[in-house]
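Inputs:
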Amino acid sequence: DAGVTQTPRHEVAEKGQTIILKCEPVSGHNDLFWYRQTKIQGLELLSYFRSKSLMEDGGAFKDRFKAEMLNSSFSTLKIQPTEPKDSAVYLCASSWTDYAEQFFGPGTRLTVL
Amino acid sequence: GDSVTQTEGQVALSEEDFLTIHCNYSASGYPALFWYVQYPGEGPQFLFRASRDKEKGSSRGFEATYDKGTTSFHLRKASVQESDSAVYYCALGDQGSALGRLHFGAGTQLIVIP
């Protein structure tokens, strides 16, 4: 089975740009998670979907971050407008049910200049 | 709210040393506990989980025992190898909640010197 796929692997943006990160979860998984990872804050949950419905939207990230699940096999994370403090690794993960193992993608490293 | 504390930010050991990484949790309900490992350039990988008091999880020579009394889930390995160098995350999920999210600790970087 294919694991979680994330594209692009690296993204460089100018301050104020709009960027869209993409994620394809493991086929058949019901839950999808977006995380931001930095050395200082560690892993922070951005959004959580179950069967395409938004279950949790990280409060601190609501204003410029928007995650969507267009169908059960594809999700996007839009950051608009980007700021230098958004520089981080963005991870997508999926799992098939509650508290089952979460499978993580390799992440997208975003650099905002 | 639910949280996980990993005491050590970094642990440096020589090959064949014994490893302990401490994980303590705080939860209002009865959590499931997890360990994940992350190698450079990759996302975290599931190591194992435990769902009830005194249950032991294990994988790849690593193990941890769920201890409700001390609210701990410490990671141990008898003899580390250079290939074990990575960041290790402890996490919890509230089994009483309808939500499947996990709360991750800050992570512990393990450096194994050959």
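Chain A has a mean pLDDT of 91. Flag for discussion at group meeting.
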